Automatic annotation (TrEMBL), chain A:
Residues 2-128 form the VOC domain. PROSITE patterns: VOC. Pfam families: Glyoxalase. This is VOC family protein. InterPro entries: Glyas_Bleomycin-R_OHBP_Dase, Glyas_Fos-R_dOase_dom, VOC_core. Gene3D superfamilies: 2,3-Dihydroxybiphenyl 1,2-Dioxygenase, domain 1 (3.10.180.10).
UniProtKB/TrEMBL annotation, chain B:
PROSITE patterns: HTH_ARSR_2. CDD domains: HTH_ARSR (cd00090). InterPro entries: ArsR-like_HTH, HTH_ArsR_DNA-bd_dom, HTH_MetalResp_TranReg, WH-like_DNA-bd_sf, WH_DNA-bd_sf. Pfam families: HTH_20. Transmembrane segments: none annotated. Keywords: DNA-binding, Transcription, Transcription regulation. Residues 1-95 form the HTH arsR-type domain. It comes from Streptomyces lichenis. This is Metalloregulator ArsR/SmtB family transcription factor. PANTHER family: TRANSCRIPTIONAL REGULATOR, ARSR FAMILY (PTHR33154), TRANSCRIPTIONAL REPRESSOR SDPR (PTHR33154:SF33).
Length: 133, 97
C-alpha cells in the first residue's frame, strides 16, 4: 500500500491553487470539473511529480468548517511538508507575506514552523537535523 | 492572588511551560505541547496541557489573546515581581559586589 493522495479542505479552490503553486511552489497535477462549481484539483511537489498528490478539496460539508476552525484555534496543522531548511523557507515565505503561527523552533531531532495557507488551514514545515554534522 | 501563584508554581510541568514562554512569547497550544513533548519528553495529552495553562492563567502568570482565528499564550511576570518584592526590606543596605 502507498499513500497516493491526501486532502485538505479549502475555502476557495482558485485561491488555494494560487497559494499552493505560486507561493509554496507546488505544481498542478489534476484539474477536472466536478459538478457545477467544484474541481478535482490536485498539486504535487516539482521534485516528485509522480509522488503523493494533495487534493485541494472544497469546504462543502458543514462539519468540516467546525473541525478545521477548532484545530486552527489551537494552532494544530492539518498537513506537514518536508523542506531542506525550515529557517530559509520561513524567511522566503515571510518575504512573500505568509503569516506564521509558529516561528521556526528546534524540537529535538527536527526543526518545525507552522504557517497559515490563507485558505483556512495551518501547515507545518519540517526538516530533520543533520546527524553528526 | 499570591496564593494562586504559589499553587501554580508548585508543579514542575507548569514551571517548564513558563520556561518555554520565556524563550518565546505568544505560543499556540500546539507549540507548547510540541515543546514539552519533543524538548522535555513530557508526553502530556492536549487536555492535560490545557488544564495546566488554565491554572497558570488563573494565577495571571499566563495571558491568552485571540488574534484572528488563532489563540496565543503570553507570559506575564507581574505576579512574580510582587512576590519578589514582598519580603525585600526597602531599607536594606545594598550589597557591595
Amino acid at each position: 500500500m502507498r499513500i497516493h493522495l491526501t486532502s485538505i479542505f479549502v475555502d476557495d479552490q482558485a485561491k488555494a491553487l494560487d497559494f499552493y503553486t505560486g507561493v509554496l511552489g507546488f505544481v498542478k497535477k489534476n484539474d477536472v470539473p466536478v459538478g457545477e462549481q467544484d474541481r478535482w484539483l490536485t498539486v504535487v511537489s516539482p521534485d516528485e511529480p509522480g509522488g503523493a498528490e494533495l487534493l485541494l478539496e472544497p469546504l462543502g460539508h458543514p462539519a468540516a468548517r467546525t473541525y478545521r476552525d477548532a484545530l486552527v484555534r489551537d494552532g494544530i496543522p492539518l498537513a506537514q511538508f518536508a523542506v531542506d531548511d525550515v529557517r530559509a523557507e520561513y524567511e522566503r515565505l515571510r518575504g512573500l507575506g505568509v503569516h506564521f503561527t509558529q516561528e521556526p523552533v528546534e524540537l529535538g531531532p527536527v526543526t518545525t514552523a507552522v504557517l497559515d495557507d490563507t485558505c483556512g488551514n495551518l501547515i507545518q514545515i519540517v526538516h530533520h537535523q543533520e546527524v553528526g554534522g | 492572588m499570591a496564593e494562586d501563584v504559589f499553587k501554580a508554581l508548585v508543579d514542575p510541568t507548569r514551571r517548564r511551560i513558563l520556561d518555554e514562554l520565556v524563550e518565546r512569547d505568544g505560543q499556540t497550544l500546539f507549540e507548547i505541547c510540541g515543546r514539552l513533548a519533543m524538548k522535555h519528553g513530557l508526553g502530556l495529552s492536549r487536555q492535560a496541557v490545557s488544564q495546566h495553562l488554565a491554572v497558570l492563567e488563573s494565577a495571571d502568570l499566563v495571558r491568552t489573546r485571540r488574534q484572528g482565528r488563532y489563540k496565543y499564550h503570553d507570559l506575564n511576570t507581574e505576579p512574580l515581581e510582587r512576590i519578589a518584592t514582598r519580603w525585600l526590606r526597602p531599607d536594606a543596605p545594598e550589597k557591595s559586589p
